[in-house]
Amino acid sequence: MPRPPMPPGTWGTITVTRTESATLEASARYIYFSGRAARIRARGNSVQAARTALVRKLQELNGAEAAEAAEGDLTPLTTVTELAAFWLREKQAQRVSPNSLKAYRSTVKNQVVPVIGDRRLRDCRTSTLDRVIKDRAALGYSPTMLRKVLHGMFAVAVRHDVMASNPVREVARISTPRREIEYLDMDQIQAVRRLIEASIGKKRPGPRPTNDLKDAVDLILGTGCRIGETGALIYSEIDLGAANPTLTVSGTIITETGVGTFRQPWTKSGAGYRTLHLPPFAVEILLRRQVENRANPIGAVFPTRRGTWRQISNWERMWNQVVDDTAYDWVTFHTFRRSVATLIDREVGIEAAQAQLGHDDSDITRDFYVHKASVAPDLTVHLEKLRPQA
């Protein structure tokens, strides 16, 4: 059976011979990135000196090829750090959402580069990446996001013909305990509303409290929108004069370092762009806000006092002030979305809940938003055959 070919950037056995001038010469067969093989030589006054000089020469040659590869296309000598930078530039060019790009960069910076950043692509195997994901999961990091980022990175390497297959594809999936889906029942929703009312009535230093938080929570309950979508609502896409009033969800709130807070004119996914029918209590809220609140230059339903977009972190800070040190400190804005999904699923069905929340797949709604045990088919007629005999 023939010996397998050596990969680019490697060299074979080092041999040392004595030259006609009585010096010692070490040599080895080196494989260039192009696949061409050449014998590289170095001399010294002793066997060890000649070998050391050759190894240094081979390492310099390997490093020069790697540096050249880093400046151009991806190659087997490209490092994982360079691949990650290449992939992030590609994601940015694809105009992924700023929040997603921020999460990708954070994962690369904190979980990929410190662990395998200097490793070359030719040395990245499924076993290597399997260990990385498992080790990081053991430290409390999300294996789902890390796997997603690594899969995307090495998919680029496959597309550029650097790797024959994606080594992340066969990495073992790490099972995590299924979390109980937390939602609010009708009595709990009313209790939370009373907490918000009490918070508005509290005397505290600073500007006078507004109904913004109360109205935002009620609109989430009346629509199933995300808090970012609720904060991005604009009057030009709300039709309260129709026989069946509607609003269109067409954007979300984003905050970027160096840019500020702005309304992104598209939603988290394609299914997130949707028109929703409004229940009467939501119509009343929007009509009241149109009458009571002065117009703002951005046409926002929930502008700041200065007429700008409110950061998500500000909404979260306002919410935490309401529920901290109460029995409802576990409730978040997402809890209201789950409550809406659970109600609609029970009253209408999972597909209706999916459409209302703006999910691409009903499995997302079912697995992460609806509090519901799976219902087995009615097999009582068949099971009755197992009745004990008298």
Report the span from N to C terminus: 74 Å
**Residue windows where pLDDT falls under 50 for at least 5 positions:** none
Helix amount: 40-55%
Q: Count of helices?
A: 14
Query: What is the CATH superfamily classification of the largest domain?
Result: Intergrase catalytic core
Secondary-structure element string: EEEHHHHHHHHEEEEEHHHHHH
Quote the CATH topology of the largest domain.
hpI Integrase, Chain A
Beta-strand content: 5-15%
- The radius of gyration over CA amounts to 31 Å
* Order of strands, widest sheet: 1-2-3
Give me the secondary-structure category. Answer: mainly alpha
Number of domains: 3
Largest sheet: 3 strands, antiparallel
Shape: elongated
Mean pLDDT: 87
CATH C-level label of the largest domain: Mainly Alpha
Strand tally, please? Answer: 8
How does CATH name the architecture of the largest domain?
Orthogonal Bundle
